[in-house]
Design goal:
With about 200 residues, the protein is mostly helical. It has seven helices and no strands. The relative contact order is 0.10. The structure holds a DNA duplex (11 and 11 nucleotides). It is found in: Nucleus.
DNA sequence: ATGCATGAGCA
DNA sequence: GCTCATGCATA
């Protein structure tokens, strides 16, 4: 039995074309056909006994923790850029997790999914670190929106006091529970509008 | 999650 | 022809 390598396929288009991604099994090493003890050297460092079971379970748990669906994993595999590996369907990922694939198939897919998992967790960690670096700074600020009632109040205030002092603005901001800068900027925009 | 279908490679 | 991996469609 010559284990060779490629198992997965599909360079394919995830969205369309039914049935047209296959190549495989030929690849899969047909180690022992039936009943042959798991001997024969040359198998990866991957132990296939019940490690598969353990891995499949860990895989599923971690995947879920990452908030990734089976379908997501399947399509993400393509971006993994592993030689003969393309995308896989949600079905296959599901079957892997539930150990309902053939033993050989499980063994073939394990390293691939393991690679994906490592990548996914790596980039996930980055997302937790980066925010720190420029969270309060470079982070996108949401556009400020002022509710109608506040707008009316602002209109009224500035109608009476077109050029309020910094203290006045601060007082208005306090009353309306807005940032002082928000009030100041709103007034400026208001003036611009009135010129139109 | 799973039934059914498909197509590849092999014997 | 048979086995196997895999996907679509659907429950």
């Amino acid at each position: 039995a010559g284990p060779d390598g490629s198992v997965v396929s599909t360079p394919a288009h995830p969205a369309h074309m039914a049935g047209m991604n296959h190549m495989h099994q030929a690849a899969i090493n047909m180690a022992h056909a039936h009943g042959l003890p798991p001997h024969m050297g040359m198998n990866d460092v991957d132990a296939d006994p019940r490690d598969l079971e353990a891995f499949a379970e860990r895989f599923k748990q971690r995947r879920i923790k990452l908030g990734v669906t089976q379908a997501d994993v399947g399509s993400a595999l393509a971006s993994l850029k592993i030689p003969g590996v393309g995308s896989l369907s949600q079905s296959t990922i599901c079957r892997f997790e539930s150990l309902t694939l053939s033993h050989n198939n499980m063994i073939a897919l394990k390293p691939i999914l393991q690679a994906w998992l490592e990548e996914a967790e790596k980039s996930h960690r980055e997302k937790l670190n980066k925010p720190e670096l420029f969270n309060g700074a470079e982070k996108k600020r949401k556009r400020t929106s002022i509710a109608a009632p506040e707008k009316r109040s602002l209109e009224a205030y500035f109608a009476i006091q077109p050029r309020p002092s910094s203290e006045k603005i601060a007082a208005i901001a306090e009353k309306l529970d807005l940032k002082k800068n928000v009030v100041r900027v709103w007034r400026t925009k208001s003036l611009q509008r009135s010129y139109h």
